[in-house]
Design goal:
2-enoyl-CoA Hydratase, Chain A, domain 1; 3 domains; signal; ClpP/crotonase-like_dom_sf; 21 strands; S41 family peptidase; 21% strand; 15 helices; Tail-specific_protease; 449 residues; globular; Pdz3 Domain; alpha+beta; 6-stranded mixed beta sheet
């Protein structure tokens, strides 16, 4: 299931008609109603031709159809592409799937906006329980307001703002959408409310309120800056018993570097005599299943395993096998087991704890499912925002007139032991902790160990 963090970095491409415009300028292009309606029709037809079963993720299919029709009928005047995006993007919350969405903005748009002097909301934020709090400046530098709960932004209640933005975020659940929104809050705020030079932010801290008056920042948010290998993968030996392996993605452009790092890490665990390995995938939005099969389970699996059970997939042209009919649905069960790798000399025989949370998604959920169902380790932390049954093999579609991108999976897969596929992955040990201090979870776990 290769989806990596594509749910965060979807490409907004453009038709040749407006290719001379810069990416952000393109969003200001005005199109006639017939072009916008045509885009809705072609996207919706493509979605049905690609998705294996919309009722698997959509909670109210009749409401979805009504919403699409209402949006289409409401377009009676020419409209800018950005306004069109505002009109159709609330469908994403109804689609209720991190792998199914329409009209997202990627780093090309953001970089173009910033390079042309565009200002953004100046803080990185995080949902701590139900409160949206300041974490740092968007350039990653510390802020004296870390931990301050946001009450209003420019006199608009934060509940109004987050409600409008969360409705436009793709995700399996409200908790999943929150986990995604907090990574790109400043971008979505700008798209919805326009560029603002100055922000008056009412905050609450230690039961006292105050107003922070601060200018917008012209700089790339953390999400859109290029990450290093070390940002995603790290091993820390905590003491003579415990170590933490951080894996923020199951993808890297140089797979051999990743596999070499993993092999070296498990050799280090062996040489240090570590008896408890903590694998942190709380920030892991997915990737390629081979990265956890060959990179982690090779060293901790003590029995043959499968990564899923029952599946349903839509037959589309480029993946059609002989005898299959395009457009039909195929259902089946994975019966192939991955054998234990007997060639590895640095396998880990100790206790394994996997840290999960609302952001853990896609291939990372399949990894968590497999670990839990085969008792390769214990899951610790909070339930995932994503469903235990995951969609995958995502396909891309560009609306011909607006150039907006849509995404749809072509299959979904149940966890190895089956079960209720629309429920989250629930940890074996649930621990509530302060999201501003993520190491608290590790400390709590070590106290129980």
């Amino acid at each position: 299931m290769k989806s990596t963090i594509l749910l965060l970095l979807m490409v907004l491409t453009f038709p040749p008609l407006t290719a001379q415009k810069s990416p952000y300028e393109h969003l200001k292009t005005q199109l006639p109603p017939e072009d916008l309606k045509s885009d809705i029709d072609t996207w919706f037809d493509w979605l049905h031709a690609t998705h294996p079963d919309l009722s698997y993720t959509v909670k109210d299919i009749d409401r979805l159809y009504q919403s699409v029709a209402q949006i289409r009928d409401s377009i009676i005047h020419p409209m800018e592409i950005l306004e069109f995006w505002k009109r159709i993007s609330p469908l994403n919350s109804q689609l209720s799937d991190g792998h199914t969405f329409v009209g997202y903005i990627n780093s090309t748009i953001v970089e173009d906006y910033i390079l042309n002097g565009g200002n953004l909301f100046p803080f990185e934020v995080i949902f701590n329980k139900d409160d949206l709090v300041i974490h740092s400046l968007i350039d990653g530098k510390p802020s004296e307001y870390m931990g301050h709960q946001i009450v209003k932004i420019n006199n608009i209640p934060i509940e109004t703002i987050t409600s409008s933005l969360l409705s436009r975020i793709n995700g399996d659940s409200e908790e999943h959408r929150k986990a995604i929104l907090q990574t790109k809050f400043s971008i979505f705020y700008m798209l919805m409310y326009g560029e603002q030079q100055k922000f008056d932010i009412e905050v609450l801290y230690d039961k006292k309120t105050q107003v922070i008056s601060i200018n917008g920042i012209c700089g790339l948010p953390k999400l859109y800056r290029e990450e290093t290998f070390e940002d995603n993968f790290d091993l820390k030996i905590l003491d003579h018993e415990n170590a933490v392996l951080t894996v923020n993605s199951f993808w890297w452009d140089d797979p051999e570097r990743y596999y070499s790092f993993m092999d070296t890490s498990f050799s280090a665990l062996q040489s240090h005599g570590i008896s408890h390995l903590i694998i942190d995938i709380r920030k892991n939005g997915g990737g390629d299943d081979q990265f956890w099969m060959k990179g982690i389970l090779r060293y901790i699996a003590d029995k043959p395993y499968r990564w899923g059970s029952n599946y349903k997939k839509k037959i589309i042209a480029k993946f059609r096998d002989p005898g299959e009919v395009i457009g039909s649905i195929k259902e089946g069960e994975i019966d192939t087991l991955i054998p234990v790798d007997t060639t590895a000399t640095n396998t880990f025989k100790g206790k394994v704890s996997i840290l999960i949370g609302p952001y853990t998604y896609s291939s990372a959920i399949l990894f968590a499912n497999t670990v839990q169902d085969y008792t390769f380790g214990q899951l610790v932390g909070e339930p995932t925002g994503g469903k235990s049954g995951q969609t995958g093999s995502i396909q891309f579609f560009k609306m011909p007139n607006t150039g907006l991108t849509a995404v749809s999976p072509r299959f979904y897969l149940e966890r190895p032991n089956g079960g209720k596929t629309t429920e989250p992955v629930t940890p074996d040990i649930i621990i509530d902790y302060n999201k501003l201090s993520p190491d608290e979870l590790i400390a709590f776990l070590l106290n129980q160990h």
